[in-house]
Design brief:
The complex is a heterodimer. Chain A is α+β, with helices and mostly antiparallel strands. Chain A contains 4 helices and 5 strands. In chain A, strands 2-3-5 form a 3-stranded antiparallel beta sheet. By secondary structure, chain B is mainly α. Chain B contains 12 helices and no strands. Classes of the chains: A alpha+beta, B mainly alpha.
């Protein structure tokens, strides 16, 4: 009796399984066809850092204080400032990060006194060289303009 | 002459059909897993298998050093032969049959057991532990499942008193044997799934434990010959089920050939559907299932059929 019961119960469960996959077969697909369709990144997504462009100056607010470079645990950031005249304010001129070492901890974004850094939504980076991972953040902001 | 033409048609149909089935399999697998399957080569990936075939043709045929050269070389050639011969006695319609062999079913069964031998040759010749384990499993599995397969077929044959496939198909013009012999049909279906090494009985090439079983060492065109044979065996198994239980080419409106193909491809779809539903079973479960469940039930079914036929 146990033998027959086992076969019948097992057979029933097999049919239930088939029914589930059959329903799946006619459901719409859920995957995104990547190169043709792209998802918008969530606000919390962390790409590499980039500058925010402010409307008042039409550019970043970086003053090249170097706090981001100093707080970075992996020494990723290199920032160079410039003063055009004595007594003027210093502003950021060159800003490079070595993305291969970046762990996206976000300390630079937190520490920035001018609040001019943010995480980009960039996720499509392919590098052929280690040297290509050095990104010119300032140039990136210029290029976006 | 007719035989030659038929063979030529088989030689043309078999690879095309395999290309279509591989694509179908990938599409079915994709949509069951809520993804689209191959989409890149041509619209909806319809030429994907063609591209794969070209890739496989272009690949180097690597022969590992420590193989048994002759056996290793012969195995993929022998595996294809029964797949081709199996088409000979199948009645696609009363007109479309290459040769109505007197012992059509026996011919198919005897040639399909050559497949097992070639798998064993491939496993042995590869000189690779995974290949050998896969091949040994294949032999044990095929020996176990051939018995319920033949017993289930026997219950149909004692109803029709003939081994001719055409005659068996014609005997079902009033009622299909799947309604008269449902148990035999289920057993036949399970056993053919195991015979063709399809999931959930694909222990022969269980990739999670045996890399890819008996064809681990095969590359390029040799590998694709194994692939070709597997899918062609699937077609033959489905066609045999159609003839034995689904009334062959009988059906309303369309010509017989169309009905036959609809039934066959539906069965192949069911096999694929099963593959992407169930997990692979363990080897002791496989053996227990054959010897403790399928064979007793098939014997009982045969006995009851014989008694009923005697009484009526």
């Amino acid at each position: 009796m146990q033998y027959v019961k086992e076969i019948l119960v097992g057979g029933k469960s097999l049919i239930i399984g088939l029914w589930i996959t059959l329903k799946r077969l006619f459901k719409p697909i859920v995957t995104v066809q990547y190169p043709r369709q792209k998802l918008t990144m969530t606000p919390n997504f962390r790409g590499h850092i980039e500058f925010i462009r402010f409307d008042d100056t039409k550019t970043h607010h970086c003053v090249a204080c170097g706090l981001c470079a100093r707080t970075c645990p992996s020494h990723v950031i290199k920032v160079q400032g410039e003063k055009t005249r004595a007594g003027d304010l210093k502003y950021g001129r060159q800003y490079y990060i070595d993305f291969s070492k970046c762990s996206l901890c976000g300390l630079c974004v937190d520490v920035c006194p001018e609040c001019t850094l943010q995480f980009s939504k960039e996720y499509e980076y392919v590098f052929y060289h280690r040297w290509d991972t050095v990104l010119d953040i300032m140039g990136r902001l210029e290029g976006k303009r | 002459m007719a035989g030659l033409v038929g063979l030529a048609i088989i030689a043309a149909i078999v690879p095309l059909n395999v290309a279509f089935l591989v694509l179908l399999e990938r599409k079915v697998a994709g949509h069951i897993q809520l993804r689209p399957g191959p989409m890149e080569v041509a619209p909806h990936g319809i030429l994907q298998t063609l591209a794969d075939a070209v890739k496989l043709l272009g690949k180097e045929m690597v022969t590992p050093l420590s193989t048994d050269k002759i056996v290793f070389f012969l195995a993929p050639i022998i595996v294809v032969a029964p797949a081709f011969v199996g088409f000979v006695p199948i009645p696609f319609s009363p007109m479309m049959q290459i040769r109505d062999v007197n012992v059509g079913i026996l011919l198919i069964f005897s040639f399909s057991s050559i497949t097992v031998m070639s798998i064993l040759m491939a496993g042995w010749g590869s000189n690779n532990k995974y290949a050998l384990i896969g091949a040994v499993r294949s032999v044990a599995q095929n020996v176990a499942y051939e018995i319920p397969l033949l017993l289930a077929t026997m219950s149909v044959i004692i109803m029709t008193n003939t081994f001719k496939l055409g005659a068996i198909a014609q005997a079902q013009s009033s009622v299909w044997y799947i309604f008269l012999q449902p148990v035999a049909a289920i057993i036949f279906f399970i056993a053919t799934t195991a015979e063709t090494n399809r999931a959930p009985f694909d222990l022969v090439e269980a990739e999670s434990e045996l890399v890819s079983g008996f064809h681990t060492e095969y590359t390029g065109m040799r590998f694709s010959l194994f692939f070709l044979a597997e899918y062609t065996n699937m077609v033959i198994a489905a066609a045999l089920f159609t003839v034995l239980f689904l009334g062959g080419s009988s059906g309303p409106f369309f010509p017989g050939m169309i009905w036959f193909l609809i039934k066959t491809y539906f069965l192949i779809f069911v096999v694929m559907w099963i593959r992407w539903t169930y997990p692979r079973i363990r080897f002791d479960q496989l053996m227990n299932f054959a010897w403790k469940v399928l064979i007793p039930i098939a014997l009982l079914n045969l006995l009851i059929t014989a008694i009923v036929l005697k009484v009526i």
